[in-house]
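[09:14] KT: can someone run the structure on this one? pasting the chain below
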Amino acid sequence: MYEYILFDLDGTLTDSGPGITRCVQYALHKMGIEEPDLDKLKPFIGPPLLDSFHEFYGFDEAQGRQAVVYYRERFTNRGIFENQVYPGIEKLLADLKAAGKKLAVASSKPEVYVERILEHFGLRTYFDVVVGSGLDGTRTQKEEVVEEALRCLLPENLFQELMDRKGGKADGQLQKYVEGKNSAVVMAGDRRFDVEGAKEYHIASVGTAYGYALPGELSGAGADVIVETVEELENVLLQGS
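[09:31] RB: done, structure tokens below
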């Protein structure tokens, strides 16, 4: 049964698409590119911004970093709140805490923004640990965020066992022990990056298809379970299967 639960933020706890896409649109405009169709910008929801500007618009390093600066001009006090909590999420979190679960947020969004969003929507109190990226461009990759969240959330011995497993050092009796224990830890998220981050540390993953994954993305990434609604997510996390 899951005892330690990591959540992505965008597309899992909150529907942040309107704010993110409008801020990307604003950044592109400042870079001399007009994109009137916000739906085309939805792939920006989830992965690190800099990577997305590189991938989708071919920006070099300097252009990408400038685009991120423009994005944050609009996001910091406006786009951040063009956002809403998915119906049922607060009940889910309250039920998990009542059941004694330890909860963390593991997001590629800058941690300062994650904290502001959780406080704004009254969700911060449910989480034992909140981890995001740095505004300076550090810890932007999902596996880095997941590792830090695991380090902060798990008992030291369980964290070290997962790290040993990741490094290929766990074998024999320890390997068997880790395989039994890792069913206690799960990552829930809506993009392949969340699933891949979980797999990096040999923990279970739940794909939230009500978020922003492309068709087939979560199954293609190898999510252990895929849910279509918040209610299904609660059933999975409470039952541990």
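[09:33] KT: thanks! The longest helix spans residues 61-75.
[09:34] RB: yep, looked fine to me
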